Amino acid sequence: MADGIQFEVDTSGFGTWLAAAEAALEQAVEAEAETTSGDAIERCPVLTGALKASIGYRMTGPTEAEVEATEDYAAVVDEGNASRPANPYFTGPVEAARERFPKRVAEALAEVTAG
Amino acid sequence: MLLQNEALDVDSFIYSRLAADSALLVLLGGTAKVYSELAPQGSSPPYVLMSFLASVDRNAIGADQRIFTRPVYAIRAVTTGTTFNTASAIADRLDAVLVGAKGTTGGGTLSILGMFREEIIRRVEVVDGVRYNYCGGRFRCFVTGV
Predict the structure, then answer these.
(1) Of B21, B52, B49, whose CA–CA distance to B136 is shortest?
(2) Using a CB-CB distance cutoff of 8 angstroms, which residues of chain B are in contact with residue A81?
(3) For residue range B45-78, what is the model confidence (pLDDT) as tens digits?
């Protein structure tokens, strides 16, 4: 009769990996928010400079961030209205972030896993 | 493979869908007042305004490098008046006509695989004492070559 097969799973290092992964995710989120807000600032049309100055980001949780333009007319400039065409200084960078962010996270986690 | 700047063909696809909807035409006063980017000077609401906002390409390595692109548009009714009633009715037609729309563009070079609404637009602006109502949505298209 063949010998039995036995295997063991050692999870003693998982806590360390998880802590490193959370730190890497936090960095990735902040880096993405910084890139996205920077792109929006770069694309923002300037008349008085108030709209451009209102663009920024803030971390709203360990792995959450908000990028925002806080001037009242921020959305109107982005989408346009009855009297002015769209100038998507904000939507463009957000669309680029949608594409870029998953790759950024995957790379960050791969680096943690590789040690 | 996509061989051209797709946005204008997608504009035409959206326009043709909206202009063919008789219920929408009634709400717009009998004519296809559907405008890209800006309404002609002197246009009076109600009308539909569609604005190209952005598009991200999905590429591959090889001869057919661009697999598809995903333009997003702000498409909304513009009305004047003290309520959203007419704008909302038009927005309902935009939703009914565009969500799930698919087909080939007029030039026969592009295939619209589908359209989806991603976000509601609802906004009021007051310009020179006139209240303008905007109601519609952000619509995304999935576009590939035929």
Answers:
(1) B49
(2) 49, 78, 125, 132, 134
(3) 999 999 999 998 888 887 667 888 899 999 999 9
